[in-house]
């Protein structure tokens, strides 16, 4: 069985990807220092798949500890590197923390992969590398823009590191996957995103609906879009997850055209903030308490993906609709509340 190391396996996208990998016959081990991730993800994975996934509680900035994982698992065939900090606001206030964590961990993972002959690595990148693009949808050739935050810069730097590394290590394959806006939870709602104080739209919507927040704000109503609110490409996290399994298999089968390829992972559809709220209200049957406020600094007006490349080369497609996104996110929020109430009693 093909063994894959998932870094950040106790985080949001990592955990959903582990489920898809297991469903496709891979054996998975996880490394997560649990500074942001939660072991609750691994128990959710066990409930869904029946499989116990081993986690190494290791900080990837520590090279010796990272190397131990590779020494103990000489049969790893690929690494999917999710582990990173991802809060845009925090990165603006604490840039060194972001450069240190997101860059050192990547360098250590690549070094260990090279030294231990693990030839396939997937790197989590972000559509933030495109900034405010001149032409929509954005394809992989769209020129990259000056990053809006240290977080976004770590993604551009991470891509550049993979490109330089692959150039001098021709036997080695890297896939750079640029995520648009990952949202939703596993359909069972046993796992989903855990954030104390989320800033992202979907958890803000569900937290408002459940009463954790009195009201939410729509940031901006005067953008040049169909209803004045920003446009994004929201994609179900299980669709993102499946693209990772396919990208790995693509490298393992030797189907890649070059040893460092970039893929956009988006649904290809642009949706406004107000349309997201409408979808939530329809699916949940609840009226959301929101008000329209000022623009949020740093927000791009609109971005959505041309995902032709991933469809053509990876045979991938998005299976989940926006309503399924909202339904799963809402059930996950309700499950979390239910569990915290049981815990309190
Ligand atoms: O309370 C809120 C939260 C968000 N929004 C709006 O909802 C849209 C989506 O915002 P998110 O914060 O959910 O997502 P972003 O598009 O800002 O974030 C994306 O780009 C970031 C980089 O800028 C990171 O890469 C991040 O992981 C990725 O999801 C934006 O128009 C935002 O203004 C609101 O109106 N109200």
UniProtKB/TrEMBL annotation:
GO molecular function terms attached to this record: UDP-glucose 4-epimerase activity
Set out the biological process GO terms recorded for this chain's protein. Answer: galactose metabolic process
Sorted alphabetically, which Gene3D superfamilies does this protein's record hold? NAD(P)-binding Rossmann-like Domain, UDP-galactose 4-epimerase, domain 1
Sequence ranges assigned to domain NAD(P)-binding in this UniProt record: 5-327
Known EC number(s)? 5.1.3.2
Q: In which pathway does it act?
A: Carbohydrate metabolism; galactose metabolism
- Which InterPro entries does the entry mention? NAD(P)-bd_dom, NAD(P)-bd_dom_sf, UDP_G4E
A Pfam family of the record is GDP_Man_Dehyd
Q: One Gene Ontology cellular component annotation?
A: cytosol
Q: What reaction does this enzyme carry out catalytically?
A: UDP-alpha-D-glucose = UDP-alpha-D-galactose
State its cofactor: NAD(+)
Q: Which CDD domains has this protein been placed in?
A: UDP_G4E_1_SDR_e
The keyword Heme is annotated on this UniProt entry: no
Protein's UniProt keywords contain Disulfide bond: no
Keyword annotations from UniProtKB, A to Z: Carbohydrate metabolism, Isomerase, NAD
Quaternary structure and interacting proteins, as annotated: Homodimer.
Similarity remark:
Belongs to the NAD(P)-dependent epimerase/dehydratase family.
Question: What is the recorded name of this protein?
Answer: UDP-glucose 4-epimerase
Which species is the source of this protein?
A: Taibaiella soli
User: Where is the organism placed in the taxonomic lineage, from the top?
Assistant: Bacteria, Pseudomonadati, Bacteroidota, Chitinophagia, Chitinophagales
């Amino acid at each position: 069985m093909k063994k894959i190391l998932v870094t950040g396996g106790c985080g949001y996208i990592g955990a959903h990807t582990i489920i898809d990998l297991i469903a496709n016959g891979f054996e998975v081990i996880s490394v997560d220092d649990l500074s942001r991730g939660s072991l609750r993800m691994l128990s959710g994975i066990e409930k869904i798949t029946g499989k116990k996934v081993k986690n190494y509680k290791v900080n990837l900035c520590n090279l010796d500890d990272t190397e131990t994982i590779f020494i103990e698992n000489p049969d790893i065939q690929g690494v999917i590197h999710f582990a990173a900090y991802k809060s845009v606001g925090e990165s603006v206030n604490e840039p060194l923390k972001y450069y240190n964590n997101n860059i050192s961990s990547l360098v250590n993972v690549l070094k260990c992969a090279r030294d231990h002959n693990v030839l396939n690595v997937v790197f989590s990148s972000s559509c933030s590398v495109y900034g405010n693009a001149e032409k929509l949808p954005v394809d992989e050739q769209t020129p990259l823009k000056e990053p809006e935050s240290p977080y976004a810069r770590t993604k551009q730097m991470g891509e550049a590191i993979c490109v330089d590394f692959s150039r001098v290590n021709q036997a080695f394959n890297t896939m750079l996957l640029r995520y648009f806006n990952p949202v939703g939870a596993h359909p069972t709602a046993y796992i989903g995103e855990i954030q104390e104080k989320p800033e992202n739209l979907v958890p803000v919507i569900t937290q408002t609906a459940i009463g954790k927040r009195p009201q939410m704000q729509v940031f901006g109503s005067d953008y040049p879009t169909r209803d004045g609110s920003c446009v994004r490409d929201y994609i179900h996290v299980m669709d993102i997850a499946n693209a990772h399994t396919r990208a790995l298999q693509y490298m393992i089968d030797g189907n890649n055209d070059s040893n460092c390829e970039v893929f956009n992972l988006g649904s290809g559809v642009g949706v406004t903030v107000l349309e997201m709220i409408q979808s939530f209200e329809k699916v949940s049957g609840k009226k959301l308490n929101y008000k329209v406020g000022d623009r949020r600094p740093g927000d791009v007006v609109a971005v959505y993906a041309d995902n032709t490349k991933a469809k053509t080369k990876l045979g991938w497609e998005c299976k989940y609709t926006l309503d399924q996104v909202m339904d799963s996110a809402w059930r996950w929020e309700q499950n979390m509340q239910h569990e915290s109430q049981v815990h309190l009693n």
